[in-house]
């Protein structure tokens, strides 16, 4: 062969979302030992401890579902149920193989609760989204002796794996009273900031704990915010998308008998999806002055993880009760669900619209426990890094509380936390096949003049003149990489006599 070629193997990995599916999980909780239930005041659910196992063409997802409900007994006093169950679901994922690295994200879409005799029937809709690492190998042209080649800077991605870390937090709260009963206790974790350095990543976040308890015959709410800082060994100069969840939380009532103290502790489980990248000067074109070359090219694009942007914003909303009865006091405000409606990327910002639904339990002027749902629409902006083409947006809420605004109006305030996983589009175009064709007659003119046309590049001219781009650029120093229209390019050749 006139042209001697050598090919090398390149690997590209990316974490891609598979098709999301919804699963309906139902359970029945017996309340007869507590005297039965009359009506539901609030209902909520959380998913946690998610695991994903890959097989050929499918992913099996398992986790825990924690459902909670505050209800009114036939005697008119508030009580609660808290039930944890395991669940498992197998999802069809054609691109997943036995050895694929997979993870999963799930969120509660809807919770419905109803009293059935002495039991509470709860039905939860959970959206489950698996993510799989797709690994592809390519044999690409590395060297072509006897030919001129054009090299283009390209970037390959590598998924380095998942890194896990645990961070315990704890806090105390002196109630100043005797705690008769805890109606609801819930903890959620959020990541506020991730700072990368040469040693890894420092994760800063907070755990929000909500306690609803009865003291002196009255039900009240206490919100606690517990910050945490944790270092994760994600590798030098790697990029990490970090998510947090509470893997376990405990509430212990201690202190003096007349002034109880809450001791709250929670275990924060941090999981980082770690991404690395490496650059390569790939051959995107080649030609030979004496041989026709038939070139085949591989051109592909992939979603390249760039960063995770986060923002927090305080929001509020209000609702009028329509029962004609005044409000004595607010008992508690509990998050029901948080749904994102639209996401638009524009001018390096993500514009996110959503609705936070909150259930407010209150005591009316005639000492009846009642509840009402309040929708808090929000519209937030998140500053993104350059080059973002696609985002995966999630929202959560913390520090939710309510107050009486007027006799029959309730105002709810909350902090909405929105994160956007940002992806850019990386393009790879390289030669993956070379086949020699017919002989070419070499140009023997000692002088050649080329009249540049609009869009011509130095490489285009070099191919037409069967010379190296470096030789043409050396003889025409005023000609750049992209030649201006109506410019004459003059070259001289050494001609054997």
Low-confidence spans: none
Morphology: elongated
What's the SSE pattern?
EEEEEEEEEEEEEEEEEEEEHHE
Number of strands: 21
Number of helices: 2
Q: Kindly, what is the distance between the CA atoms of the first and last residues, rounded to a whole number of angstroms? A: 27 Å
Largest sheet: 4 strands, antiparallel
Question: What proportion strand?
Answer: over 45%
Describe what you observe in this structure.
- Strands 1, 2, 6 and 7 form a four-stranded antiparallel sheet that branches. The chain has a three-stranded antiparallel sheet with strand order 3-4-5, with no helix packed on it.
- The protein has helices spanning 458-465, 469-475, and strands at 4-17, 21-30, 39-55, 58-72, 78-92, 102-116, 119-145, 148-174, 179-197, 200-215, 218-232, 239-254, 261-287, 291-320, 327-346, 349-364, 369-383, 390-406, 409-439, 447-451, 488-492.
- 31% of the residues are buried.
- The protein contains two helices and 21 strands.
Condensed summary:
With 497 residues, the protein is mainly beta.
SSE layout:
Layout: E1 4-17, E2 21-30, E3 39-55, E4 58-72, E5 78-92, E6 102-116, E7 119-145, E8 148-174, E9 179-197, E10 200-215, E11 218-232, E12 239-254, E13 261-287, E14 291-320, E15 327-346, E16 349-364, E17 369-383, E18 390-406, E19 409-439, E20 447-451, H1 458-465, H2 469-475, E21 488-492
Antiparallel strand pairs: 1-7, 2-7, 3-4, 4-5, 6-7, 8-13, 9-10, 10-11, 12-13, 14-19, 15-16, 16-17, 18-19, 20-21
């Amino acid at each position: 062969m006139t042209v001697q070629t050598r090919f090398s193997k390149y690997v590209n990995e990316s974490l891609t979302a598979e098709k999301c599916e919804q699963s309906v999980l139902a359970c029945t909780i017996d309340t007869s030992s507590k005297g039965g239930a009359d009506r539901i005041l609030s209902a909520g659910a959380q998913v946690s401890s998610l695991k994903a196992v890959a097989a050929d063409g499918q992913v099996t997802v398992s986790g825990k579902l924690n459902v909670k409900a505050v209800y009114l007994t036939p005697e008119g006093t508030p009580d609660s149920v808290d039930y944890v169950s395991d669940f498992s679901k197998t999802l069809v994922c054609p691109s997943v193989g036995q050895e694929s690295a997979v993870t999963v994200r799930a969120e509660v879409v809807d919770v419905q609760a109803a009293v059935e005799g002495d039991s509470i029937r709860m039905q939860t809709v959970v959206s489950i989204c698996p993510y799989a690492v797709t690994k592809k190998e390519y044999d690409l042209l590395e060297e072509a002796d006897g030919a001129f080649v054009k090299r283009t800077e390209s970037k390959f991605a590598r998924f380095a794996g998942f890194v896990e870390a645990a961070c315990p937090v704890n806090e105390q709260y002196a109630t100043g009273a005797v705690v008769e009963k805890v109606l609801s206790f819930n903890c959620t974790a959020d990541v506020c900031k991730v700072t990368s350095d040469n040693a890894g990543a420092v994760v800063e976040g907070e755990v929000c704990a909500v306690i609803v308890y009865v003291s002196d015959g009255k039900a009240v709410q206490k919100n606690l915010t517990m910050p945490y800082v944790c270092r994760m060994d994600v590798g030098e100069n790697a990029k990490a998308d970090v998510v947090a969840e509470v893997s376990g939380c405990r509430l212990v009532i201690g202190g003096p008998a007349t002034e109880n103290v809450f001791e709250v502790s929670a275990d924060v489980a941090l999981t980082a999806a770690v991404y690395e990248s490496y650059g390569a000067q790939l051959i995107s074109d080649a030609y030979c002055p004496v041989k026709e070359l038939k070139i085949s090219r591989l051109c592909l694009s992939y979603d390249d993880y760039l960063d995770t942007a986060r923002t927090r914003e305080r929001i509020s909303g209000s609702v009028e009760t329509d029962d004609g009865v005044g409000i004595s006091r607010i008992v508690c405000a509990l998050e029901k669900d948080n749904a994102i409606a639209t996401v638009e990327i524009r001018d390096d910002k993500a514009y996110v619209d959503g609705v936070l639904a909150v259930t407010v339990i209150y005591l009316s002027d005639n000492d009846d426990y009642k509840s009402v749902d309040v929708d808090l629409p929000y519209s937030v902006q998140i500053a993104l890094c350059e080059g973002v083409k696609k985002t995966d947006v999630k929202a959560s809420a913390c520090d939710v509380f309510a107050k009486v605004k007027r006799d029959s109006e309730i105002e709810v305030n909350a902090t909405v936390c929105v994160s956007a996983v940002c992806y850019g589009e990386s393009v790879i175009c390289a030669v993956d096949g070379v086949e020699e064709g017919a002989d070419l007659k070499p140009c023997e003119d000692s002088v050649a003049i080329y009249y540049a046309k609009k869009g011509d590049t130095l490489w285009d001219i070099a191919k037409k003149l069967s010379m190296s781009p470096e030789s043409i650029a050396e003889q025409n120093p005023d000609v750049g990489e992209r030649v201006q229209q109506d410019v004459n390019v003059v070259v001289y050749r050494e001609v054997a006599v």
